[in-house]
Amino acid sequence: MAATGASKTAAALPWRYRAAVASRVIAALGGGYALASAVAAAIAVHGQPLLSGSRSEGAIAGAMLGFVAYAVAFMTAFAARSAWRAWAWVLGPALLLGASVMKGGWT
């Protein structure tokens, strides 16, 4: 029985390529979630003066911008030159925003 061309191509892919793609997927899903959460929290905590002083408006605006940040992080994870850069571009801002939220509080 002859194998199809698609199965030959899939079998020929090296494990490093597959690991890089898997790492990008995890960076996009997990790192994107971390970035979206950090953006939402940072806007909710620090965006209060910009949004007429209401905490509820800050929380809603943060949640909406979190969706945008998740989409951008997902695209960035696959547009980066390497899996390491994908992780850096996704987790770098997430860690900085998370640190700013942990340092500052409700005013």
TrEMBL record:
Pfam family, any one: DUF3649
Presence of keyword Transmembrane: yes
Keywords, in A-Z order: Membrane, Transmembrane, Transmembrane helix
Keyword Transmembrane helix: yes
TM region positions: 25-47, 59-80, 86-106
Name assigned to this protein: Iron uptake protein
Origin species: Roseateles aquatilis
